[in-house]
Amino acid sequence: MTSTTPPEIRLDPVSEADLPHIYRGLSDPRVIAYYGVSYDSLTACQAQMDWYAELTRTGRGAWHLIRDRHTDEPLGAIGYNDADPTHRCAELGYWLYPEHWGKGVMSAALQLWLPLTYRTTDLHRLMAVVEEPNLPSARLLERAGFHYEGTARECERKGDGFISLRHYAILRSDLPASL
């Protein structure tokens, strides 16, 4: 797969059988460096699986495993959570196994995921927050059509310090009407 050829992927709803794949990602120090959760065992990661199931059950979110279309190999995950039915908004999250970084996988996933999400929900606004040093993620969102809305300076504690978060959003009306 070259950077000029979009990877052929598919999105499958996260299921209980995906626990080892989710754990692999959310226990990798490179993946979780800019991610909000991490787990040190399969047993602990069950909390993440329960959270995914609760999001789906309540309609407050939906997460998908990103898979290679030909090999079924898991590559990462993408989804939304914290859906607010009154304001029809939610927060986007995503991550990839490091060996797939820089290959266009997440760009391809967003190209599939955004229309799917807007077709299957009544969401109007999807938000994403990116830790300030994570410029590849910021560029990904901008390429996907998200608008930079500003930086909340030192708004969260992480480790021994504070982090700043860049805020991005895309509206249903930002996507082509054919979706």
Which value, in Å, is the CA radius of gyration?
16 Å
Q: Strand pairing plus helix content: what structural class?
A: alpha+beta
Query: Helix fraction?
Result: 25-40%
Provide the succession of SSEs.
Answer: EHHHEEEHEHEE
Tell me what you see in this structure.
- It is a single chain.
- This protein is 30% helix and 34% strand.
- The longest helix is centred in the N-terminal third of the chain and has 17 residues, at 42-58.
- Helix 1 (19-26) packs across helix 3.
- With 179 residues, the chain is α+β, with helices and mostly antiparallel strands.
- The protein starts with 8 loop residues before the first strand and ends in an 8-residue tail after the last strand.
- The chain has helices at residues 19-26, 29-32, 42-58, 105-120, 135-143; strands spanning 9-13, 62-68, 74-84, 89-96, 125-131, 147-158, 161-171.
- The chain has a seven-stranded mixed sheet with strand order 1-2-3-4-5-7-6, sandwiched between helices.
